[in-house]
């Protein structure tokens, strides 16, 4: 196997243990793998960023706002959005190297399981959609690609109306921007939204508001990076 | 079936460019000549063509653009026609939302825009581009040494005749750029299109102003990763080899600088794209100081015409390296200690004013050895540099401006950089990163300037390797040749 990120050969030691209990093949080499930092220990309970307090100041602000209070139950992210992950996501999403998502699969699955084991039984997984134009440009929807990694069925309940790139906007622009999503039909089950990056949290909250308007009881979110 | 497997196997070794359409459309239609210049000789994805859909379709119906399949499927593998990649691990599948099917894409050249199996590459087959024929495009006034002049004449002949391959085997510091001017001028006078491909972006940045000064009326583009203008529509193109990925049968003259250097030598994509960028009857000029086995054996078999430039432009011979055996070198370097012989040599240097360039095999050692060197040689202005050092450019500049006295480096400074007055040390010259070519290039860093045309080169090793012996032999052989020319 070759490392998905640096193209180096990954050599596996053969031991009695892995002869009888073969491990899934590694996607990253031993020097690239530690550069991804899974988020664990002392995280904000609401958005899963690294935080000394149980709820980080950003989330406090969200929960004090009358319009946004309680819209999103909590977010869980898999990795810290460090420079390595920024590089990987840029190549995966913007350059369009689809196969790179496999580097995230193992940790994403275990994190999802740990967090949503009970909830996922009755909840629906909904990936954040792209506008048609953006979808054509990229060739795939990165949120769907993540949802697909998790091994749970997912449904596309949302539609995106605008085409603006979140990454090109400031925090203030993002929070005051108009809600870009639309939902059809009604939903009476909890929803786990899936996206690639949680930055300010506005995207998943916009989606959550629309879902709640059509009857969804609770909305969670699961993202690759925070 | 048998034939299919055979042809698939064969295509692994011989890349054919028969798939590039050459048909020139006969439709007479008024077309701005700059459009031909913009697209002639290009191999582009739709997204690289800066035209709106309507104009683009109009050109397609006139057969001015022809689509070619971007990724071809062979019996057991794929080939990307843009970068020549045929490694299985560098293709992957994507559930494509453009064509709603699952198909492959090329991972190798993805940084230059993704090549999808469902979308073609476009080749310009419209009116051929006409380039200006200037009578005397070159205004360079300098003079050449005898040896340079001979090479220059031979190069000019090859460029004017076309359909020729020529290797210019010139020592480090021979003044290769100046030898090209006459030939390029002659080619431009014939209305030919010329490309100079080099492995590194710094070389493009350095050469561009020199060429602009020497060819003031010629249209010229410098292309490298991160360069501002990427259209590459000029008559004279200076580019890193990677940038040729967007060209097919574009140039009448292709000059490949440092054909033995790492990316060109190590990556099969680069010969693939440079050969494709050349027209079928193009002249190919290869520049090198240290040809590899492959080229040497072609020279010996008389299959590759060669011209030698065995003396430097200032006429002095190359400094021959001295070898010095140190028995416990590995142990000492591991403990970040220096061999006693190095200190002894340092104290007795011929010219203690010269700066010092120390080559080491690994990044780790480069960083580790700096404090020891600073202490033992009692020098404060010392630092190390390696390929992933963000301050690489500044450090090289600082050495040039004599703000640093000693620079410890990995092999990244082995080529292309010129410091006026240095002594060169290689620590652990027996390491496998120092092959013959690397050692010859490293030795070539000394004595570059006419003001200080000599310099000491010393290899510390714990066992002579073939690479070291061959490097010394090859330098001595060139010096011998040089004496007969003068």
TrEMBL record, chain A:
Family of the protein in this entry: Belongs to the ComF/GntX family.
PANTHER family: DNA UTILIZATION PROTEIN YHGH
InterPro entries, per the entry: ComF/GntX_DNA_util-trans, PRTase-like, PRTase_dom
The name this protein goes by in its record: Competence protein ComFC
TrEMBL record, chain B:
Transmembrane segment boundaries: none
Keyword Cell membrane: no
Keywords: ATP-binding, DNA-binding, Nucleotide-binding
Domain Helicase ATP-binding: 157-309
Ranges of residues in domain Helicase C-terminal: 337-486
Domain of life, per lineage: Bacteria
InterPro entries: Helicase/UvrB_N, Helicase_ATP-bd, Helicase_C-like, P-loop_NTPase
Pfam families the record matches: Helicase_C (PF00271), ResIII (PF04851)
Full protein name: Competence protein ComFA
UniProt organism field: Aquibacillus albus
């Amino acid at each position: 196997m070759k490392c998905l990120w640096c193209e180096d050969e990954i050599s596996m030691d053969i031991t009695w243990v892995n002869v009888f209990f073969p491990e899934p093949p590694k996607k990253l080499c031993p020097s690239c793998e530690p550069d991804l930092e899974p988020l664990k220990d002392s995280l904000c309970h609401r958005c899963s960023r690294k935080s000394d307090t149980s709820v980080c100041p950003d989330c406090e602000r969200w929960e004090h706002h009358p319009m946004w209070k309680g819209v999103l139950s909590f977010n869980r992210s898999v990795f810290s959005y460090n420079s390595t992950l920024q590089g990987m996501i840029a190549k995966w999403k913007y350059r369009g190297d689809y196969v790179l998502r496999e580097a995230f699969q193992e940790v994403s699955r275990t994190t999802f399981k740990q967090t949503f084991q009970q909830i996922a039984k009755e909840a629906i997984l909904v990936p954040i959609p792209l506008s048609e134009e953006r979808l054509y440009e990229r060739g795939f929807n990165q949120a769907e690609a993540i949802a697909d990694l998790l091994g749970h069925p997912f449904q596309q309940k949302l539609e995106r109306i605008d085409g603006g790139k979140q990454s090109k906007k400031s925090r203030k622009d993002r929070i005051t921007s108009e809600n870009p999503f639309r939902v059809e039909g009604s939903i009476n089950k909890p929803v786990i939204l899936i996206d690639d990056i949680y930055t300010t949290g506005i995207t998943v909250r916009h989606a959550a508001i629309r879902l709640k308007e059509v009857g969804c009881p609770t909305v969670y979110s699961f993202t690759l990076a925070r | 079936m048998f034939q299919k497997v055979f042809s698939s196997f064969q295509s692994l070794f011989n890349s054919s460019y028969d798939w590039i359409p050459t048909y020139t459309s006969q439709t007479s239609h008024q077309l701005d000549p700059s459009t031909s210049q913009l697209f002639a000789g290009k191999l582009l994805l739709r997204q690289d063509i800066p035209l709106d859909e309507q104009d683009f379709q109009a050109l397609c119906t006139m057969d001015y653009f022809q689509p070619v399949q971007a990724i071809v499927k062979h019996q057991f593998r794929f080939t990307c026609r843009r970068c020549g990649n045929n490694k299985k691990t560098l293709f992957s599948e994507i559930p494509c939302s453009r064509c709603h099917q699952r198909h492959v894409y090329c991972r190798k050249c993805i940084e230059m825009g993704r090549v999808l199996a469902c979308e073609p590459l476009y080749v310009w087959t419209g009116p051929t581009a006409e380039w200006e024929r200037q009578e005397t495009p070159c205004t360079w006034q300098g003079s050449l040494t005898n040896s340079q002049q001979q090479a220059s004449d031979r190069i000019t002949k090859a460029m004017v005749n076309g359909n020729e391959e020529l290797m210019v085997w010139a020592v480090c510091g021979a003044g290769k750029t100046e030898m090209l001017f006459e030939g390029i001028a002659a080619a431009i006078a014939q209305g030919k299109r010329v490309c100079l491909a080099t492995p590194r972006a710094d070389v493009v940045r350095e050469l561009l102003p020199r060429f602009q000064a020497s060819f003031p009326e010629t249209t010229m583009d410098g292309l490298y990763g991160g360069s501002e203008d990427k259209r590459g529509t000029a008559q004279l193109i200076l580019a890193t080899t990677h940038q040729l990925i967007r060209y097919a049968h574009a140039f009448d003259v292709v000059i490949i600088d440092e054909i033995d250097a790492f990316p060109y030598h190590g990556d099969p994509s680069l010969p693939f794209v440079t050969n494709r960028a050349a027209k079928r009857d193009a002249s190919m000029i290869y520049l090198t100081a240290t040809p590899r086995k492959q080229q040497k054996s072609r020279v010996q078999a008389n299959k590759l015409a060669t011209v030698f430039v065995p003396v430097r432009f200032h006429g002095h011979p190359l400094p021959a390296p001295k070898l010095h055996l140190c028995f416990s070198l590995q142990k000492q370097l591991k403990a970040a200690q220096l061999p006693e012989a190095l200190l002894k040599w340092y104290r007795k240097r011929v010219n203690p004013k010269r700066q010092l360039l120390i080559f080491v095999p690994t990044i780790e050692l480069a960083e580790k050895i700096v404090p020891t060197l600073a202490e033992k040689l009692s020098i404060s202005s010392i630092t190390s540099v390696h390929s992933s050092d963000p301050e690489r450019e500044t450090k090289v500049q600082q050495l040039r401006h004599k703000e640093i006295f000693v620079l410890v480096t990995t092999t990244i400074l082995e080529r292309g950089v010129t410091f006026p007055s240095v002594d060169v040390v290689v620590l652990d010259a027996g390491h496998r990163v120092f092959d013959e070519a690397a050692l010859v290039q490293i030795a070539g860093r000394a004595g570059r300037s006419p003001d200080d045309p000599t310099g000491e080169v010393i290899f510390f090793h714990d066992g002579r390797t073939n690479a070291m012996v061959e490097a010394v032999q090859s330098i001595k052989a060139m010096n011998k040749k040089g004496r007969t020319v003068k």
